[in-house]
Amino acid sequence: MQARKKYVLLGLCACCWLVLFYWGGAVQLRLLRLLTRQRGEVVRPWPNWTDRAFLPHYAHLDELQTDPGTAELPRQRRQAWSAIYKDSRCRMETCFDFSRCRRRGREGFRVYIYPSEKNDRVSESYRKILTSIGESRYYTSDPREACLFVLGIDTLDRDQLSGQFVPNVDERIRGYPLWNDGRNHLIFNLYSGTWPNYTEDLGFNIGQAILAKASLNTEHFRPGFDVSIPLFSKDHPQKGGERGWLVRNTIPPRRKYLMMFKGKRYLTGIGSDTRNALHHIHNGKDIVSLTTCRHGKDWEKHKDSRCDHDNLEYERFDYQELLHNSTFCLVPRGRRLGSFRFLESLQVPSTVRAVGNERVLVLRQRTQMLWEAYFSSVDKIVLTTLEIIKDRVFSHISRNKYMWNSLPGGLLVLPEYSTHLAHFPFYYLGLGVSPGQEFTAVIHAVSPLVSQSQPIMKLLQVVSKSKYCSQIIILWNSEKPPPNRSKWPAMPVPLTVTDGRRKTTSRFLPHVAIETEAVLSLDEDTVLLTSEVNFAFLVWRSFPERIVGYPPRSHFWDPLKRAWGYTSKWTNDYSIVLTGAAFYHRYYHYLFSHYLPQSLRALVDRTSNCEDILMNFLVSAVTHLPPIKVAQRKQYKELPSPQGTKSVPWANPEHFNQRQECVNTFASWFGYMPLVHSQFRLDPVLFKDQVSVLRKKYKDLERA
Questions:
Q1: Is 605 a catalytic residue?
Q2: Could you report the per-residue pLDDT of 254-298, keeping only the tens digit for each?
Q3: How far apart are CA 184 and CA 178, in angstroms?
Q4: Same domain, 537 and 655
Q5: What's the rounded Cα separation, in Å, for the pair 129 and 86?
Q6: Rg of the Cα trace of the chain?
Q7: Whether residue 621 sits in one domain with residue 486
Q8: Active-site annotation holder among 612, 683, 689, 700
Q9: Residues 347 and 224 reside in one and the same domain
C-alpha cells in the first residue's frame, strides 16, 4: 500500500513538472528566481533596449514609442502574408519546372515577356526592367522556347494609394494560359503594402512565382528561390551608371565626417521610432544626422518640439557633399524595410568608428566592386537577377562564391566556358598561378594566295620560329577557297587552316583548335620580327588579363560634335591596341561571342570593320584598365597590296568614318566609355641605351 502511494505521488509530481514545462512563462521564471535567490545568487535580467540604464545619452522612452494605432502584431503579419503568398515553402525543386529550361541544353535559358495590353500603365522603372530583359541575350519572343516568364503588367508599386498601382492583377494573370499558378514566372516588386502598416501585401497571389523584391522581410524570404534586389529610383540609369567615387589608393581612407544620414523623419506610424532615435547621435562635427519633418500634406498637424530646429539644421548641409565626404553612411529603415540610401551608400562604405584605416579602405574597395559589378544600372540589377536564377537552374555549371564576390564580378564570368578559377585570366594573381608558356597564333587571311612573296608567307616563317609558338591557325576569310597544304611553307609547328565563313567576327570565335591560354592575333599583312613576338609574349605573361600588342590608337571626346572621336595619330597616349598584332587570353574569344549582343557583332560583319575596337571595349570593360603597348620598330610601314588582291581597307576614307561611328555605337551599348587612356609602354631592358648591342637580349629591335 505504501509503495502504491509513492508511485501515485511521483506520478503527480511528474505531471506538475510537465505542466510547468509546457506552459513555461512566468511560473518558470518565478520559480527560477526563487531557487537562485535561495542559493544567494543575484539574477540579472536581460537588458531591455529601452532601458535608460543602457541608453543614457539617447532617446527618451516617450520618443521611441510607436503610434499604437499603427502597430501590427506578428500573427496579423503572418496571416496577411499567408493569404497572399500561399506557396511560402516554395523551393526550386518543388515550384520550378526545370524541363522547360533544358530542352536546348545550355542554350535553354530563355526569358519571355508577356505583351502589354493597350491601356496598361507602365512606370519608367518597370519599362527599364523590361528593356533590360528584351535587349539581353536571354530574351525570346517565342513563349514555347521560354524557361522563364516575366509579366508585362507593372508590379513594381503595389501601394494602393500610389498612382502607379495597377488593379485587378489577380484576375488578369489567372487568364494567362501559361500562368500555371506562377510556376517558372518572375515577378519584380519595389513597393508593397500601404499606409499605415505597410505590410508586404502585393494585392495578388503570386503562387509559385519567383519574387525579385526590394525590402523583402527575412521572415517571408524563400531561400534559394526568391531574389532580394535593391530599391532604386526612376532616375537610376538604364545602362552603365556612374563609377564609384573611390580613386585607387585614396589616402587617408577616413573622410571629413565619420558618419552621416540625411532624410525624412516620420512623426507617426511605422518607421517613426527608427529615425526618431537618430538625432541623438548628431554632434554637428564628425557625426551628422539630419532629419526633416517637412514632407507629406499634413506634417504640421503632427509636428513636435524638435521639428523647427531639425528643419533648419537639415537645410544647412548639402546631401551630396556629405555623401562624398563621409566615412560612414547610415541606412536606417523608413516606412518600408528598404531605402534608396542602400544604393547611394554603396559608393561610400559603411563602417564603424573602431574599424582601422586599412579595414576602412578594404571595405570601401569592396563596395566599389559591388556597386560597379551589380548595382550601378538597371541593366546590371536585372541581369544579376537572371544570372542568379540561371545558376540555380544549371547548378552543375554555376559560378562559385569567389566568382560572384571578386572582380570583375559574376556577370562577366561565364560558367559555360569553365567553372575553374584557374581558367580565367583575372584570377591568376589571386591564385598565385602563371599562364602557360606557349601561345597559338591566329592569322586572319582575306586575300587569296597568288604568290609565295605575299606578306603572309613571311609572317608564317617569323612566327613559327618563336620558341613559344605552339601552333598556327589560319582563319581563311577569302572569297576563293584555301590552297592545298603543299602551297604553305614547311614549319616547325602544326599549321591548321579553318574556314572563317567570310565573317569578320569569326576571328574571335572560341575555336576548339586553340589549346593554349595565350592567343596571338595577327592580320595577314602584319610585319614583325621573331624577337618582337617573343618580347611581347613575355610581357603578356605578366599582364594576362590585358591586351598586349603593337599598333596603338586612341579615342577622344569632341565637345563640338558632342560625340566620341577616333584617331590613329601618333600621340603621347593611347587607349586601343589593334588586334592585328596583339596577345590576349583565349577567354575573351568566348566572352566576345557569347556576352556581346548579336547586334554589335552583326555591325562588325556588315561593315567588315571595327572588330578590333570592339574587343578593346570588351577587355577594358572587364579590367577597367588600358591595354599595354610594347616597343616596335618605328620604321614599320604598310606594304602595298600584291597584284590581283584587294586594296587594304584603311586606304578607303569610308573605313575611318565607320570606325568613328563604331566607337559611339559601342559606347552607347555599354552605357559609358570603358576605354582607358595610358602613357605606359614597355621596352626591353637596355633598349636604346648607349651600350654595346652584344649586351642586349633583343638586338633586332634596334637594327631594323
A1: no
A2: 778 888 888 888 776 665 666 766 767 778 888 888 888 887 777
A3: 9
A4: yes
A5: 26
A6: 33
A7: yes
A8: 612
A9: no
